[in-house]
Amino acid sequence: MKDQRKELFIMENNVRPGILVLINDADWELEGEEKYELHSGDNIVFVSTLHGG
Q1: Out of 27, 28, 29, 48, which could bridge 21 as a Cys pair, Cβ 3.0 to 4.6 Å?
Q2: Within a domain: residue 40?
Q3: Is residue 43 part of a domain?
Q4: Which family does it belong to (predicted)?
Q5: Please, is 38 exposed, middle or buried when counting C-beta atoms within 10 Å of its C-beta (0-12, 13-18, 19+)?
Q6: 1-53 pLDDT, tens per residue?
Q7: How many C-beta atoms surround the C-beta of residue 31 within 10 A?
């Protein structure tokens, strides 16, 4: 990930609370989190679970 936008997703070397990470439509926790090796064609999605009211 480019360092210029990293702070939007990372806090203290972890994914920020309230951000769901999907790898090929599966929760990244099921894929081994940071141990997962990205492959060509993988689809990575960051979803905010926080919203204003």
Answers
A1: 28
A2: yes
A3: yes
A4: Belongs to the URM1 family.
A5: exposed
A6: 556 777 888 888 888 888 999 999 999 988 988 899 999 999 999 898 887 65
A7: 16
- What whole-number distance in Å separates Cα of residue 41 and Cα of residue 18? 26
The two beta strands, 44-48 and 26-27, are unpaired
pTM of structure: 0.72
The CATH number covering residue 11 comes to 3.10.20.30
| Residue 53, in any domain of the structure | no
Residue among 11, 29, 21, 26 at smallest CA distance from 45: 21
Number of domains in the chain: 1
- How far apart (Å, rounded) are the C-alpha atoms in residues 44 and 21? 7
| E strand segments, 1-53 | 10-11, 14-15, 19-23, 26-27, 44-48
